[in-house]
Write a structure and sequence with these properties.
By secondary structure, the chain is an alpha/beta fold. The chain contains seven helices and eight strands. The radius of gyration is 18 Å and the shape is globular.
């Protein structure tokens, strides 16, 4: 199940309850770093027995939590790549095909808007950049997930493959092409536009995985 949290504050509020669910064996947490990776990691360290620093390849730990008989496997991915500050759109920027000329034009377009006329917040500039670029594609304004399906974005780049491999390892997807997953994300709107089926073109032993997503 992909469960949107409505931002980091909501995640902080709901995470303790979520960890107590006895039927859950694996849990993935995907959050935006925004300005600082360290601040997000410090919050998670206060609630989970995790390493001193996030793994650049995505963190996965086995935890024996109070009140649980079974070990809980927890995976943490901090957008965009567990190292740099940023958010989902910074990750998406990695997926723009090399040599694309419109991505720079979109950035220049955003940069030319006077500060006093910008209706978006400074921290959301990358969102304005990416969604301006999306508005100039063959099917303007489609979601990020659809942009991958329509080959506007390249999920074969190393950054995307690293994220896919983290998911494969966390949910043991190499053992079966189908899996029900528990994934907490701070912003679901851009992750998938279909609540039931999400296709991931990975290369983790099998050429493609279909994650069967239950409605939140």
């Amino acid at each position: 199940m992909i469960e949107p949290q409505g931002g980091i504050d909501k995640l902080k509020e709901k995470l303790p309850t979520r960890l107590k669910k006895s039927e859950m064996k694996r849990l993935g947490i995907v959050v935006d770093a925004d300005e600082k990776v360290s601040s997000i990691w410090t919050f998670l360290q206060g609630r989970l027995d995790i390493p001193q620093n996030p793994d650049p390849a995505g963190t996965i730990v086995d935890l024996q939590l109070p009140g649980r008989e079974q070990v809980l496997t927890v995976g943490i991915w901090i957008m965009p790549n567990n190292v740099l500050p940023g958010k989902l759109e910074d990750f998406i920027r990695f997926l723009v095909p090399e040599g694309d000329t419109l991505i720079k034009r979109a950035k220049d377009c955003i940069d030319q808007i006077p500060e006093s006329e910008r209706n978006f917040k400074k921290k959301d500039k990358i969102k304005a950049h990416i969604h301006t670029w999306l508005a100039w594609q063959e099917n303007p304004g489609i979601s990020l997930a659809s942009a991958i399906n329509n080959s506007y974005l390249d999920a074969r780049v190393p950054q995307a493959q690293q994220f896919i491999e983290w998911l494969c390892n966390l949910f043991s997807l190499s053992n079966s092409p189908y899996a029900v997953v528990d994934l907490l994300v701070t912003d679901l709107q851009s992750v998938t536009d279909n609540p039931r089926i999400c296709n991931s073109p990975g290369n983790c032993k099998l050429p493609q995985y279909r994650l069967r997503i239950a409605n939140p």
